[in-house]
Structure formats: C-alpha cells, structure tokens
Amino acid sequence: MLRRHAGRAHWRAGDRLILAALCRAVPRAEWGRFPVRPETLLRWHRALARRKWAAFGRRRGPGRPPIAAELQALVLRLARENPRWGYQRIQGELLKLDLRISATAIRAILRRHRVPPAPRRAGLEWPAFLRALAEGLLACDFFSVESVRLQVLCVLFFIEVQTRRVIVAGCTAHPTAAWVGHPRSRAQLSRTA
C-alpha cells in the first residue's frame, strides 16, 4: 500500500551507477537492503557494461585504422616513378623500409587516385603501338583464285598497314615453304614496292 501511495522512485544515471557499483562490493545475501530489487541491480549493471563497451567501440570506429597520408603519398610516388611495379613489388619495397601495408591496401590507394595497374601504366597501349609502327608494318596472307582453265591458284600477298596498299608477291598452283621463302618471290616483292 505504501508503494502505491508513494509512487515509483525515479533513479538518475548517477544513482544507478552508485547502486550498481555497490552491488558488486556487497555480498549477494545483503542485496535485500538496497531500495531496489536484485534483478533491477543486475539489469543496471549489464546496461552499464553494455554502454562501456559500446563507447569503446565508438572511439575506435568501424573497420581497420586509416592508412597515414604520408604512406599513401609514398605508395603513389613509387607507382608513378616505377610504372612496371605491381602491388606486390611496391609492398616488398615498403617492407624494406619497415613499412607494413597489404597489397590489397596498395591496390585500393591506387584505385582511389585513378592510377591503373602496373602493365597498363608502362608504355603505349596496343592501338597507340600499332599507330606508331604502322608505317613499317606489313601483313601477309594467301588467297585462292580459279583460273580460266579451272585450275586453283594460290596467291601470296602483302598489305602495308598504314597505306592499306596491296602488294602481290607471287602466284602458284602448288605453294610450298620453299616457294614462299624463294628469293625470286622476295625480288618480285621489292620490284612492285
């Protein structure tokens, strides 16, 4: 009846903290002297422990700690100055300096700064390579044609890649390796060029 008339006590956070700490110092048989039930004390204690570990997790933040800006700058510098080095080679060079970073982290740094992987950083790309060498590049192939007497003839021809000019090197009914590499075929090619 007294509890119904007095109403429920409102405990502040500081009061709960003190009572929860006291419950750990007092033997369990004496918990009946506290103004709250033992289950309430245990619940408050669990809540305090939960809050402590939640605050600990918030301080550190989720995931791995960030990589220092100086180390990121060094990774970018090594990648730009050594275009043929891959992620693992950069990692190995950093280990020589006693700087520990994973190859995956190096890849993430390079991706974030739009630095392509090692083979694509070095030299020309394939279309640019072909354009640069097109002037001296020749393609070679055979095609077959039927003559007026219905005889099948094989024609060896070359194409200059840059100008797309076709050069017929020779024609025979029975092509052999000796015929393809014959000096007369090479002389005929140089005459038509």
What can you tell me about this protein's structure?
This protein is an alpha+beta fold and 193 residues long. 52% of the residues lie in helices and 13% in strands. It contains ten helices and three strands. The chain has helices at residues 2-6, 13-25, 38-60, 69-81, 87-96, 103-112, 118-121, 126-133, 177-180, 183-192, and strands at residues 138-146, 152-160, 166-172. Strands 1-2-3 form a three-stranded antiparallel sheet. The longest helix has 23 residues, at 38-60. It is rod-shaped and about 125 Å long. It starts with a helix and ends with a helix. The mean pLDDT is 79.
Please give a quick description of this structure:
With 193 residues, the protein is an alpha+beta fold. The chain has helices spanning 2-6, 13-25, 38-60, 69-81, 87-96, 103-112, 118-121, 126-133, 177-180, 183-192; strands at residues 138-146, 152-160, 166-172.
Distinct helical segment count:
10
Total number of β-strand segments?
Answer: 3
Helix content: 40-55%
List the uncertain runs.
none
- The general outline is rod-shaped
Structure keywords:
193 residues, alpha+beta, three-stranded antiparallel beta sheet, 3 strands, 13% strand, rod-shaped
Produce the secondary structure layout:
Layout: H1 2-6, H2 13-25, H3 38-60, H4 69-81, H5 87-96, H6 103-112, H7 118-121, H8 126-133, E1 138-146, E2 152-160, E3 166-172, H9 177-180, H10 183-192
Antiparallel strand pairs: 1-2, 2-3
